[in-house]
Structure formats: structure tokens, C-alpha cells
């Protein structure tokens, strides 16, 4: 790196840190100072300010509104695909999690869910619909299905006070040991948008999760919709097994299941 590149890098980081310090005294939706003010305040070029602002927009700290300005964005929740609970992941980021139970239903499993839970189609299941919130804002809609035989008389309302996995362990002695999870992009239906307080057909992430005991017995199947504007997924890449592999198709990527209980 040349001396000129190093100076540009230091200036860029200085402007970025200056803007981040300003955000500590601002609320979500507040405007940040115009670029010309930041240019004078930091003693750098307009281009340096613009690049630093661009970085903070990409990172989810700021949001641009065409013809209006740049504003403090709602915090984006970043989740890595490793085994940690929904509530624990938020608390680590200084965000207060909460849950609202929207409904509980008991029925026969049917073909699709019996396959997921490895039970007979005629076996009874309990389905719990929960709204997951971060600092009081709806961010996810979770529909969890469990074999009724594993969780008789499940006290679903207790899930507003404790995690699903804690309830399963405390009341039924069921401990989640492993799981598999699929993630795909989708959009919110009008009904889902209303619950999540997002515009209809907004981008979203769809998580499908199956967790199991140490004996490999399926405990739950959960389908979770996360608002795309409030959620970000990060992955650590391990390319040591295939050092020549192109990053666009890394066979060395290892991802564990993210627990959403």
C-alpha cells in the first residue's frame, strides 16, 4: 500500500468514526449533518465523506432518502448461522427480545409435517404461532410444530417469558442436541405483512428448522419469516479444504443450524 492510499484509509476511518459518534446522540429517523458540514468538520474532501457515508448505509447504520437526506436507520440484526438462541443472539447485541404468542392449535400431523417430524400422519401435533420482537418492533413470525406425544399439555403462554428450548428442557427433559436449517429469500404475503408491520410483498428470509435430541429424534419443525429490512445473515468461510476454490462457489463453507427457540 502506498503512502497516499494509507492516508486515504486513515481519513476514511476518521470520518466513519466521527459519524458513528454522532449517531450515539441521535434517534432512529433523525437526519445526520449534510455532507458539506461533515466535510468542514472533519477537514476532508466531499468524496471521502461520501464514501464513509456509503459504507455506513451498506452496514445498515444509515438510510438515504432520495431528495431528502441521510437518516439514522433502525438497527439491523446480524445473525451468523451458528447454534444460538434467538433471545441470546439479540441480547449479545444490546437488543431486548420479547415474544408474543399469537395462537396454539392441535391437529393431526398430515403427510408433510409427519415427514418432517418422523411420525405417522395420524399422530397428533401441537402448532404454536409466535411473533418475535426486538426492542418492541416485530421482526419475525415463527410457526413451530411439535409431536403432541413429546409435549403433553404444553403451556404455550409460558413462551412469552422463556425460550422454547428452556421450556422443553425444564418441563419435559428434552434437550436439543442438533438441527438442520434451510434459508431462502421470499416475500411477505399481505397477511404476514400486517402482523410484521411491513409493506406487503416486502423482501424476507424464510428459515425452515428441524431440531433433534442426541438420539436423533426430531423435536420440532419451525418455519420462521424474518423481515428482510431488519435482518442480515453473515457466514464465516473456511476455505482451507479447497484453497483453490472460487469464492463464488466455496465448497469449504461450514454452517451449523441456528436455533430459533
Task: Describe the structure in your own words.
The chain has 261 residues and is an alpha+beta fold. 28% of the residues lie in helices and 30% in strands. The chain has helices spanning 3-23, 35-42, 46-58, 86-92, 110-117, 164-172, 190-196, and strands at residues 62-65, 69-72, 77-79, 97-108, 124-134, 137-147, 178-187, 203-212, 218-227, 231-233. The strands form three sheets. A six-stranded antiparallel beta sheet has the order 4-5-6-9-8-7. The chain has a two-stranded antiparallel sheet with strand order 1-2. Strands 3-10 form a two-stranded parallel ribbon. Strand 5 and strand 6 form a beta hairpin. It is elongated, with a radius of gyration of 22 Å. The protein starts with a helix and ends in a 28-residue tail after the last strand. The relative contact order is 0.13. The model is unreliable at 249-261 (pLDDT under 50).
Q: Uncertain regions: pLDDT < 50 for 5+ in a row?
A: 249-261
- Report the average pLDDT across residues: 82
Which class of secondary structure composition applies to the elements? alpha+beta
The counted number of beta strands is 10
* Helix percentage range: 25-40%
- H/E order of the elements? HHHEEEHEHEEHEHEEE
| Silhouette | elongated
Radius of gyration: 22 Å
List keywords for this structure.
single chain, 261 residues, alpha+beta, six-stranded antiparallel β-sheet, two-stranded antiparallel ribbon, 7 helices, elongated
Structural topology:
Blueprint: H1 3-23, H2 35-42, H3 46-58, E1 62-65, E2 69-72, E3 77-79, H4 86-92, E4 97-108, H5 110-117, E5 124-134, E6 137-147, H6 164-172, E7 178-187, H7 190-196, E8 203-212, E9 218-227, E10 231-233
Parallel strand pairs: 3-10
Antiparallel strand pairs: 1-2, 4-5, 5-6, 6-9, 7-8, 8-9
Helix pairs in contact: 1-3, 2-3
